[in-house]
Specification:
YaeB-like fold; about 700 residues; 6-stranded parallel β-sheet; 25 strands; Rossmann fold; alpha/beta; 27 helices; binds adenosine-5'-triphosphate; 4 domains
Amino acid sequence: MATLGIHKDFLLEFAKLEKPVQKRVHEIFGKFREHRHAGLHLEKLENPRDSRIRTIRVSKFMRGVVLAPDSGDSFLLLKVMAHDDAIAWALSHRATVNSATQGIELRNDIALEQATADVHDAPAATESRLFTDVADKELTRLGIDPDLLPLVRNLSTEAQLDALRKILPEQQYDVLAGLAAGLTPEDVWRESVAVHAERTAAEVRQTPADDELTAAMARSQGRIALLSGPEELLDVLSRPFDAWRVFLHPSQRRIAYHPSYKGPARVTGGPGTGKTVVALHRALHLAQQLPDDAPDESVLLTTFTRNLAADLRHGLELLIPDEALRAKIRVVNVDALANQLVREDRGGPLTILTSQKEIHSRWNALARKLGLDYSDVFLDQEWRQVVLAQDLRSPETYLKASRSGRGTALSPLRRAQVWRAVEGFTRELRQAGEWTFLQVCAEAARLLEPRTDRPFRHVVIDEAQDLHPTQWRLLRALVAPGPDDLFIAGDTHQRIYGNKVSLRSLGVNVSGRSHRLRINYRTTHEILQWSASLLGGERLDDMDGGSESLTGYRSVLNGGHPELRASTDKAEEIADLTARIAQWVNDGVEPSEIGVAVRYLQLGKEIAHALVQADLHVRLLGTAQTAGDGICIGTMHRMKGLEFRCVAVAGVIDSVVPLASALTPAEVDAQQHREDMLGELSLLFVACTRAREVLRVSWHGVPSPFLAP
Ligand SMILES: Nc1ncnc2c1ncn2[C@@H]1O[C@H](COP(=O)(O)OP(=O)(O)OP(=O)(O)O)[C@@H](O)[C@H]1O
């Protein structure tokens, strides 16, 4: 049977073609089942490096490049490029099989020969080499070709390795990038080699092939998708920007499509590593595994905020066209679900107290009334981080409770005073018929705990790092403990709401079922490196008693360095930013592909005003002005989970980043002060890592201390 494979690059290039050319591509390849090579008019080249690489005319100006293995009835769509580029690419490349993964590799033979010759001719360098600590035998075991060793051995910097990205065989580059990013050969073996091998047996069984390359196509998960027929080709080509639907990296696929986990499982990884993508695929897998009689909404896919839930819903629509299957999955944010459960129990809507300012003012009034010398911030934090976090319901339990994580000790007498304040605060809320979000979650969990039936069979959680212990308690109660109960995606480097948890203490044990992703698909290497350097190698908790770092975190893309711009005052910064954004638009960037992140909304409003004055359309998140396709302006919090081609982070000045009012004064609680600082730093990190191609960071006056080298 004819086999059609599509290379990820093909899809990405296809996405950029004009509509009529895209239509031609459909016509040419749409009937591939009926074709053999001869019927497709694949053209042979003169003196190619690999006679199996052919080209095909798409239009007067465009050509496709196809790998046509000798078996005669399978082919792989590799590239679609401008005529001359396609010919040059096809002439210089050769397809080989990686010695470690047995997957297909495409190498730029001509460029590699040239680079190797340059190494021979160059004078012996004195600086230390990138891979000195890795033996030849080890490199070969990881799939590095012996004939590339001289070139690899000569590399001194990551920048030199980056420069070879386009010409090295992809999997060999991946291995080298992993080693250069600090992973041990064992880590690299596990993450970049063994994952492919794991797939091999199953794939080969599914796709028996007598041709070596055809078999290797089946082993190239993540870069090559084998399509079942013309309908699937059409479907893939119809949404070319959503490569994540088809091209899961084996390290992602292994996690998302693991047949069944014995208990809670987790995926972690830096920004843009595809945690959300994995969560979406996991939800699909769980829905597919449900018994036929399982009711709709048996699987819950949930996250922190309403906006993020809307994004997940959109992602599921792309991933699961089958409405009946999609209906098995309910998408809703945790607070909204809690609200619904409590509302149904009470038989009416709840009044939610959302304003943090109002909450603080009530604590203040209460402290005055009771004659207590605690600040509103202290009392509110004590309530949320100790009382609600541990679900303490009596003065006795509070007296004995651990207050680890809080920076000030409280004597028994002072605990009794604080408890009085907590009682007073909650009594006032009760009397006014008001709730805070966390109270609603706590109540929802309480309602569920005695029940033997649970609302869901499986729960998939995204952005898990931001959830409060109370929300975790609810999530735990939504599903009976057992296989595939909870699937958790999160990254503690992006914790921006100050909610620290120990999963284990909440009855969620992921040990032996926790996986880390390290390849970033969103941001360029340059943006990633700069953004990660903001964190200064900070090791954070992993929500499970261990610590987490960004070691081995790397990008598959290259681009320019972040633009850093200083201005003397705010007006100048905004004018400068407006000019730069206008230039992006002039250069062809769609306004909706531009994001502006700010620490507080008022600055966003001022920037929006300036952009509108310059005839640019804007959307201001968190206001009524959110409709349309304009430039997206939002607070750093709102930027969470979003991504844009170009991102400007503006107003990164001292006293705003970190925002003084978001910091617990060190004298109130030194430990909390440090945590708040870390939260502010993570916020800047989150904002910067929203950029796909261009990141611009600006300030006026004194820059944020986080920007100091
Ligand atoms: N295997 C893949 N192939 C192509 N694109 C991918 C792949 N995995 C993820 N992506 C893309 O990378 C980007 C980041 O993915 P995603 O949002 O899932 O990452 P994340 O780890 O959840 O990020 P963050 O933590 O920053 O929110 C998205 O544009 C997604 O479509």
